[in-house]
Structure formats: structure tokens, C-alpha cells
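User: Can you predict the 3D structure for this chain?
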Amino acid sequence: MKYQRFEDLPVWQTAIELGREVYTLTEDLAFKSRHSVRDQIERAAVSVSNNIAEGFERGTNQELLTFLYIARGSAGEVRSMLCLLQGMLPFRNLESEIRNLRTKTESISRQLGAWARSLQDSDSKGRRYVNEKVRRHAETKHRRDEFLQELEHIRAGHKSPNG
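Assistant: Here is the predicted structure, written as C-alpha cells:
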């Protein structure tokens, strides 16, 4: 399935949830006098979805790949901050929320990694380079491949017993 808008990407949707949940977490009183920690984790969380969106909108696979790795790095930063919070006494009452957020950031990192690997294995240069000529060529290749598969199927079904 090809996505036309970044808003439709499941990983972006999960990243937006992460941002919202981090903002909910940082509303807790434990963050009241810890402005730098609060600011850092909020910025890192928002960076995940923003970099997915920016990379997607750039239109080239190389730029998308760059931004996916930046988003993945931001997810790692959120996870690191959550590890820090887990070990601090003022945040003990938030352990369940922190654990859930860590799970979510790990999932996002895995999804981004898989997407990046698929882009690296792709022959496509990205949407920016797709014009009518490229579309026609891809469609012709697809029809040719289907025809060859059908021929192979027919050939396999009509083989003589002697070989």
C-alpha cells in the first residue's frame, strides 16, 4: 500500500500519540521544578513525528531516509530520558506511564528501522522523480512480469512426463 500523506502512516500516527502522551506525562507535578528535563523530553518526542513528516514531504528516498534516521535518533533520545526518569525518586509514581512510553518508543524505532531498510533496498529514487514516463515504464514492466509468470505457469502445467 502506498501512502499519499504522512498523516496516513501508522508510524507517524504512533509518533503523534507518543508526543501527546509525553506532554500528558510532563504535566505531572514531578516536572514542576525540572524545566530542562521537561523541555528536553517534550522536544525529543515532538521531533519524532515532525521528522517523519518532513522526510515524507521531501519527495526523495534519500532525504526521507535521512529524516527517518533523525526521527529514530529522537525516539532513542526519548527512551534515554525515560530511563533517566525511571531511576529518579520524584518520578516513582509515574513508573507505569514511563514503562508504556518506553514500549511505544521501542516500537517506533523498530518501525522506522524496517522502513529505512526497505528504502535502502529499493530501486526507486522517490515520488519527486516519478513522472508519466516512469509510471508507464513501471506499468509495462509489471504487465510483462505478470505475462511471464502466466507463461511459466502454463508451461509447468503442460510439461510432458519425459521432461
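The radius of gyration is 23 Å. The helical segments are 10-25, 35-58, 61-86, 95-120, 132-157.
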